[in-house]
Amino acid sequence: MSESLPASLLTALPDSSVWDATELATRDPGFDARNFGASALVRPRDVEGVAALVRFCAEHGISLVAQGGRTGLAGGAATSAGQVICDLGGLNRIEEIDPFARVAIMQAGVTLGALQEACALHGLDPGIDLAARGSATIGGMVSTNAGGIRAFRNGTMRHRVLGLEAVLPDGRVFCDLTRVLKTSAGYDLKHLFIGAEGTLGIVTRVAVRLDQVVGASATALVGVPDAASAQRIVRHFLGSTSARLTAAEILWRNFAALMQRALNYAPGQLPLDAPCLLVLGLGADRMESARGVLEDGLAAIWEEAGIVDGLVASSDAQAAAMWRLREETQQIEHAHHSPPSFDVSVPGGAMDAYVARIEAGLRKLDAAYAPYVYGHLADGNLHISINCDGPVSHERHTAIEDVLYEGLREAGGSFSAEHGVGLEKRDAYERYADPVKQDLARMIKELIDPGHVMNPGKVVSGK
Amino acid sequence: MSESLPASLLTALPDSSVWDATELATRDPGFDARNFGASALVRPRDVEGVAALVRFCAEHGISLVAQGGRTGLAGGAATSAGQVICDLGGLNRIEEIDPFARVAIMQAGVTLGALQEACALHGLDPGIDLAARGSATIGGMVSTNAGGIRAFRNGTMRHRVLGLEAVLPDGRVFCDLTRVLKTSAGYDLKHLFIGAEGTLGIVTRVAVRLDQVVGASATALVGVPDAASAQRIVRHFLGSTSARLTAAEILWRNFAALMQRALNYAPGQLPLDAPCLLVLGLGADRMESARGVLEDGLAAIWEEAGIVDGLVASSDAQAAAMWRLREETQQIEHAHHSPPSFDVSVPGGAMDAYVARIEAGLRKLDAAYAPYVYGHLADGNLHISINCDGPVSHERHTAIEDVLYEGLREAGGSFSAEHGVGLEKRDAYERYADPVKQDLARMIKELIDPGHVMNPGKVVSGK
């Protein structure tokens, strides 16, 4: 190219917006400072624009990194000089909501929050929720197979996607916009693009399954001796059909204590020094019945579960305060600079033993280590932050990972539950993923993206 | 090989049972007479036995067809001379049921019925059900991505599988026995094997997600003017959290009339000549409340939905009689010899128009054609049989398919909802599946099974 890269892009793609590195430097890169390390950002207006950009990059041997809301926590959208960002923000139209088929069709750059709002007008909901709802995009959530609070009931993004459209590394468009749940019409290749973090294709359009909204939701905060006790409570409510368990979040003592101090939370009678706290959400047709079922259910299981103490929120404000204890996790970053943070799935029956084992293992690395542990009890997804400033040395990071990940796959868990692999977990992927699976993944990456156009160096090992 | 194929197999695989063609000819081939066309059947005892069999076949250039319960309806397990059957019936152990993690780990040859029984002891259920439960195996259900009556709520087999183990065409074992819902740890390649009908690997072990059993389930039979009316009823019950909709099956008049005559069904006051019948299942903690919610809900939606008449079953026997109307579909085969039968997914809002369109299109082919249409209303999966003896000529079959499948993909539906592609829908796959998807599928088959060892000629087009 005789022109600069941004100038060439503008010439080749006149319908797209283009920012150069100077402009990028003045913008907010989102969660990860490395997101805007590229030489240019292109914002196409439609799928044809994305395909034209992909073909341009493929022809010129330039690598392309798709970005949505830039809320990813694993460095999957990080870029470097010479690379081009494909910003999906221009593809932000909700194209259709069908209230009888309970399906929404949208472009990939629509935010979760915008989708939730549009669905709510029909008494529907995409069935998935997470704290970054205001900026996380559906395309990004598909690409990382996002999970969140309600996955234990509704599944992860993979389970919500009915169909998708994606631009392949050769510029062709893979179009499987099925909007029905049942299809056994050959290999279901859309699943290759779900959770692939933009390394096999760029997701441009998605059909998502919707659920009817619950009339009202009651909240409780319950102190329990351990996760097994909390699981007994969850099991009790899952077994009832007279209300719908909508959330079951667990906070271990270190995390709960930090949040309580940071948020100045004072519930009065509730002993926040229980070994674990459980935040429960229960949906029913009306608020009184939701609160009633929650109170009756806790009373029924109180002794069997060994509940220390519990409180059903009597107002929306009290419920919101309980939820802040769980959700305002940026308090960890206020207390520690870039603390090493992890995201694992632990099989249900093994949770207490797992937490005890990692606490002991981390203490061996550093007697001051006392991790903050919290997460989604009912699906086993735990978030873990170390109570120290980061980044720690590569060697120390690896040692912490070994404590957290050792034996996890063999037990049926996962070293990456919902944040993806990106750059941060590439090393762990190579150490902990099944070698046959890694080999197949490399072969498939090479097959579909032989020129390594799309998000090279992320997720899969290889060139 | 100097010996015959069965003798060579027995020598090479001393731990497996081997049947030759003579023995096969004396056995029940299951739903499809072509299932036992092979030269030999091998029944390994474990995954190592399956891997040894695969290596033997790969080395000798023999093609291998995996079989479970032989209940498939699309010819996916059909075999011919020179081929070897890998019978998974020897891998029939349920290895673990974890009531707190709500997961079951089992070998692929376990039947759905056996799994349901074992789970019921813990108050749990695999969340998927179909009429062939007594013989259909979990491995076969994974391989065809089975759906059934409860998929509208719980998803298809793909949504129930947490992890799986499969033997690849080169004899290596792909092992992803994750037993948690949330994992974003690289490409989720287990989805390649789900719905691939044994063309990419042989599934040997599966981890399945379980749900808590509903306390009691009430049944109603409702006459409605059309599918849109039935969908209003479904929407009403889905929006309630005080009970759980467990089934919503729809029967168009031709099918309902056939079944009523064949089963001599006489409900008394119910006008079975309504344009459509809806069989509803509603779960609640106790039978009285299930019946109460069903009665109250029907009363509340009666006028809005234009209900013709309806009856809530007052006894188990009455409920069973209602279910027989929907489930004893072999009555179609009693009325017609091998009637041409189809299995499509139609997007929710388009169902009445679809049925009207195919009825008119079929009449144009033959004025006597009046299809039997019935199926799973809430997920759009319709089963269609033509009221004539079969098999019809290839040309006529293609003409019928064109009436049924034309425009279906573009509208977001599927020409194969839950029966798979197998042999029966190979032609339709080539005519109706997205060409880019077909090309990717061929590339992946070639990548993973370059020697075409596994179930050649099924699902994907190619060599």
TrEMBL record, chains A, B:
InterPro entries, alphabetized: FAD-bd_oxidored_4_C, FAD-bd_PCMH, FAD-bd_PCMH-like_sf, FAD-bd_PCMH_sub2, FAD-linked_Oxase-like_C, FAD-oxidored/transferase_4, Oxid_FAD_bind_N, Vanillyl_alc_oxidase_C-sub2
Alphabetized UniProt keyword annotations: FAD, Flavoprotein, Oxidoreductase
Cofactor: FAD
Highest taxon listed in the record's lineage: Bacteria
Gene3D superfamilies in the cross-refs: 3.30.465.10, 3.30.70.2190, 3.30.70.2740, Vanillyl-alcohol Oxidase, Chain A, domain 4 (1.10.45.10)
Domain FAD-binding PCMH-type: 34-213
The keyword Oxidoreductase is assigned to this record: yes
Family: Belongs to the FAD-binding oxidoreductase/transferase type 4 family.
Name by which UniProt lists this protein: FAD-binding oxidoreductase
Originating organism: Mesorhizobium montanum
Higher taxonomy: Bacteria, Pseudomonadati, Pseudomonadota, Alphaproteobacteria, Hyphomicrobiales
